[in-house]
Write a structure and sequence with these properties.
Number of strands: 17
Distance between the termini: 40 Å
Number of helices: 12
CATH topology of the largest domain: Rossmann fold
Helix content: 25-40%
Strand content: 15-25%
Structural class: alpha/beta
Number of domains: 2
Order of helices and strands: EHEHHEHEEHEHEHEHEHEEEHEHEEHEE
CATH class of the largest domain: Alpha Beta
Length: 393
């Protein structure tokens, strides 16, 4: 009987996920493995009801060369996704009511609730589906539960993806290149309009806890940026933007802010219910900064949210190459029976690394070497000897 690989995608979608899936399926079939797609991330393993054929159809999708042949030509994830944390479930599925799971009181973002740990159900479902090893593709949150399965001695391999590029133990995550390429393009397109009207452009970009997307976008567009790792001085940032506008022949200036960026005395506001990992949506720091900027300077501003538009569509070359390589590296690990590892890039080279410790949180920008705290822009000097993405894991 063929060995069976399970594969899932969790958290936010990014371009490149389908290239990983296709790479795993194609390489797997060459080596006598079956691949089963688990739809909607970790939810597939908490909500699957084997006694209900409709539930099985919803969550379990056998993959082969035919149904994955063209998936890498589109963005998103054909396996769909969700933000589900099996170890901290607020609700148990209806059909499991009456089943006892370990529980504890949990407080996140001021909300106290009873959290159920459904890991026993996850392991049971993996066994029932016949999954021998699992590939989990995701960011910090999704991979934190992969680390939990590894501790439960289930054979698991992790692949990092996030436009924030903030997963520890790797210098690169799938989705990052496409995101900053599209951000660069969007800013370049808007320059003509902002310049024509002599305005100040304020852009908001992904980066809840880490400022890589804002920093790298600013790096290639030569504009100011604000990142979560360093609270900027409001008046100083405004003065710099006004200086940029004055010295620009087209009389405009630009700044890009991470969604988690703050200035001294300001805290990003949140709204909505926390997700399975305790995160609430953030109000737009660009809107708030733009309002203050306009009030203080009487200048016209253009506020642009560059977040979700960066998710859609086909991956660029870098993300397709890295995603395809990560998928094939995962198969190398399976063939070698090496588990509890994440595919990554270390010192500019592909590497297998430990799945990050969830307790350490996301990887942050090294402010001392990468961010000019006086000019609120990237540091451009002293790059000789660094990997292509200018940072080490």
């Amino acid at each position: 009987m063929a060995k069976r690989i399970g594969i899932l995608t969790g958290g936010g979608d990014v371009p490149g996920l389908n290239s990983v899936i296709k790479g795993v399926v194609y390489r797997g079939t060459e080596n006598g493995y079956e691949t089963v797609g688990l739809r909607r991330g970790w939810e597939s393993l908490t909500h699957l009801n084997h006694d209900d054929p409709e539930s099985v159809r919803k969550y379990v999708w056998p993959l082969n060369r035919d149904n994955t042949r063209t998936i890498d030509r589109s963005g998103g994830t054909v396996l769909h996704t969700s933000r589900t944390n099996p170890s901290l479930m607020k609700k148990v599925p209806e059909f499991l009511k009456g089943t006892t799971f370990p529980s504890r009181e949990k407080t996140k973002k001021g909300e106290t609730f009873t959290a159920f740990d459904m890991t026993s159900r996850v392991l049971e479902n993996l066994q029932k589906i016949g999954i021998d090893q699992l590939i989990a593709i995701g960011g910090d949150d999704t991979l934190s539960y992969a680390a939990r399965l590894d501790k439960e001695s289930f054979p698991v391999i992790a692949i990092p993806k996030t436009m924030d590029n903030d997963v520890r133990n790797t210098e690169y995550c799938i989705g990052f290149s496409t995101a900053i390429t599209r951000a660069m393009d969007a800013i370049s397109r808007q320059r003509s309009t902002i310049g024509s009207h002599e305005r100040i452009g304020v852009f908001r970009i992904f980066g809840r806890d880490a400022g890589y997307t804002a920093l790298y976008t600013a790096y290639v567009t030569s504009i100011r940026c604000g990142i979560p790792e360093h609270a900027f001085d409001l008046d100083k940032m405004i003065d710099l933007l006004m200086q940029d506008k004055k010295s620009n022949p087209s009389s405009y200036s630009l700044v890009v802010l991470s969604e988690g960026a703050e200035w001294k005395g300001y805290q990003v506001r949140e709204y909505g219910e926390p997700d399975a990992f305790g995160h609430r949506k953030k109000m737009s720091v660009a809107e708030d900064f733009g309002d203050v900027l306009k009030a203080k300077t009487k200048q016209e501003t253009v506020i642009s949210d560059l977040t979700y538009d960066l998710r859609g569509g086909e991956a660029d070359f870098v993300d397709k190459m890295v995603a395809t390589t990560f998928g094939n590296m995962a198969l190398d690990c399976i063939l070698a029976k090496k588990f509890g590892l994440m595919m990554g890039i270390e010192n500019g080279r592909y590497a297998t690394v430990p799945i990050p410790d969830p307790g350490l949180g996301p990887r942050k920008v090294d402010v001392d070497t990468m961010y000019n705290t006086e000019r609120y822009r990237p540091n451009y000097g002293n790059k000789t000897g660094l990997p292509i993405f200018l940072t080490r894991s």
